[in-house]
Amino acid sequence: MYTLIHTDSRFYLLDKHPGVSFHRDGDAPGLMEALRAGLGDEALWPVHRLDRITSGLILVARSTEVARALGEALAEREVEKYYLALSDRKPAKKQGRISGDMVKGRGGAWRLAPTQANPAVTQCFSHSLQPGVRLFLLRPRTGKTHQLRVAMKSLGAPILGDELYGGTPADRGYLHAYALRFELDGERFAFIQPPGCGEWFTGDACRALLAQLGEPWTQPWPGA
Asked: Cross-referenced InterPro entries, in alphabetical order (predicted)?
């Protein structure tokens, strides 16, 4: 369900497994319920969330004060978040900025509108993993529901395994919260967690490409 990556007196950092929901689903406990039981600590507050299909890094505060501080940093866009995604479709553009208002669609899905009243903003780079499959490095500059999944769909390159948005069926949804950078109480933190499951994510080609790319914050990201 999750792997504990880092323990601090103020927060925990988890690697959420794909297919795990934050909330109880029938007889299956949700992520926070399982975490509180596993750590024997009821006083836990998630700082942000990930979709069920998405794996990767999640910050969990150990006090309301820390939850408030990190939540405010998120709202002010002072927490840097970087994601990995795979697609087996050719994108309309291989890198750049994706921006537009999020509009509710059918069946729980969203779509990207051409308007810019309160846009979801995402920056991206992509690299060929093998013929017909591309690895995307994504940096969301806003925090909208399904933002990255919709951004990829808008490029004509839905995420592999994300069938809600037209992705090709696969052994998992290939979206992973890869890295975080933030400051807390004047201390800087930086974490990178490669994906630990999924045939494509754990293959030699993907691991080699990630090693070649290095730290995601060193990439020449265009202005938001």
From this structure: PsdUridine_synth_cat_dom_sf, PsdUridine_synth_RluA-like, PsdUridine_synth_RluA-like_CS, PsdUridine_synth_RsuA/RluA, RluA_PseudoU_synthase
Q: 């309301």: which residue's tokens? A: 64
The answer for residues whose C-beta is within 8 angstroms of residue 215's C-beta and 6 or more apart is 179, 190, 192
- DSSP sequence for 157-176: -PPTT-GGGTPPP-SS--EE
Which residues belong to the active site? Answer: 51
Q: What is the biggest distance separating any 2 CA atoms in the chain, rounded to whole angstroms?
A: 49
Residue type, 110: W
Cα–Cα distance between 98 and 168 in angstroms, integer?
A: 22
Cα–Cα distance measured from residue 91 to residue 89, given in angstroms and rounded to the nearest whole number:
6
CB-based contact 82:91 (threshold 8 Å):
no
Q: What is the pTM of this model?
A: 0.96
CB contact burial 60-98 (16+ within 10 A = b; e otherwise): bbbeeebbebbbeebeeeebbbbbbbbbbbebeeebebb
Q: Which two tokens stand for residue 139?
A: 């940096």
Along the chain (224 residues), what's the average pLDDT of each consecutive run of 10 residues?
A: 96 96 84 92 93 96 97 94 98 96 93 96 96 97 96 98 98 98 97 97 97 94 68
Instruction: Provide the 8-state DSSP code for 143.
Output: -
Residue 23: CB atoms within 10 A of its CB come to 12
